[in-house]
Amino acid sequence: MNVQDVMTSTVITVRADSRVEDAARLLAHHRISGLPVVNAAGALIGVVTEHDLIAKEGRTVAEIMSRGVVTVSPHTDVEEVAHLLSNHRIRRVPVVEGDRLLGIVSRSDLVRQIAMRWVCITCGEPVRGNAPPEHCPRCGAPTEAFTQSVELPGT
Questions:
Q1: Residue stretches of the chain with pLDDT short of 70
Q2: What integer pLDDT is reported at residue 14 of this predicted model?
């Protein structure tokens, strides 16, 4: 499974010249913990997080944002993203093509995918959905033959 299958494509962004208070309002209003920072052309130039807001001083987002952001492409494997989030101890990764922001993948996006994965205990067929299917598409086993997977998608 690739990033494009799990990413949030409607991304709330902030401009580098925005006031710190405006970024804080966006985070609070949308109940998110970080925002990609874009320039006037819409290119990704950084990320501003809750940590940046409370640990750094500045009047504009440009003065407190994190630069040198870890990014992924829409074709990156979801398992690789899980390792990036874990190893870098970050909560989100912008999805870019060139310098164009396409989406964002957060820890909660990956958790949602894990929660939607069901596995047939009869044949091992993985199925995605909020609830197990009535029958396994591969072997025809009934709903009772499904269990929720505890593995990351693609593993």
A1: 149-155
A2: 98
Domain edges within the chain: 3-107, 116-148
Distances (CA, A) of 9 to 5, 39, 143, 145: 10, 18, 32, 34
Beta bridge partners of 105: 93
Fold of 116-148: Rubrerythrin, domain 2 (2.20.28)
Fold of 3-107: CBS-domain (3.10.580)
In this chain, the answer to whether the domains covering 3-107 and 116-148 adopt an identical fold is no
Give the whole-angstrom CA distance, residue 88 versus residue 18.
27
Q: What pLDDT is stored for residue 149 in this prediction?
A: 63
Q: One-letter amino acid identity for 127? A: V
In a 13 Å sphere around the CA of 54, the CA atoms on its Cβ side amount to 6
